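During the no-cost extension, the postdoctoral fellow (Dr. R.K.) reprocessed legacy sequence entries with the updated structure-token encoder. One reprocessed record is reproduced below for audit purposes.
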Amino acid sequence: GPFCPGSMGAIGTAGVKGFYKGEECLLSCYHVLVDAEPPPGVHVVTPDKQPTATRRSGNLSATVQVLAGKFSESVDYALARLPNDVLYRNQFRGHPVNGFCTKDDLALLWKVTVFSFGAYTQGSAPVTHTLRDIQIGSYSFVNVLQTEKLSTDGDSGAAVFTADNKLVGFVFGGDGKTLSYIIPAYKLIPDPFILP
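Re-encoded structure tokens follow.
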């Protein structure tokens, strides 16, 4: 059966599919695929330490190996190899992903409505701040987007898109009341990751 953006994981939402070093991979948040609560600081997936994660969608599940990833004040991403027997559809609102927003594109999103399809929340919200620094508990993050509430607990890793299906980034947190935070895709797309 297919997985698609919004498929539920143990503690977050599956992200988007792409190709990394010729392998079909899933791009999501480090704190979704590797460690739900990494201590503050810099954490990196290395070739000698590649954990596994289980993704679920209804009655279906798949275990994926994490190939790369990083958690720091500027990024929260992980890339996991998709097994050959898993079909992952890279679609949002019935249409394929249309590339990703550059840093310059993000500056134009202020007050623009963006769309997300998380495991628990699907919907839209306007961007209220572009590229701002925030503090969540003991974690500091730089250059993130802020929207009106677009997510809830368990939606971390949900892909966020523009109206024309351009990938903005991934939900990684919020204040639990009125705001959601998005790590911009341009900071997460590692070379040579390719969106199909």
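Residues 1-11 have pLDDT under 50 and may be disordered. Residues 1 and 87 are 6 Å apart (CA to CA). The remaining legacy entries will be reprocessed before the final report is submitted.
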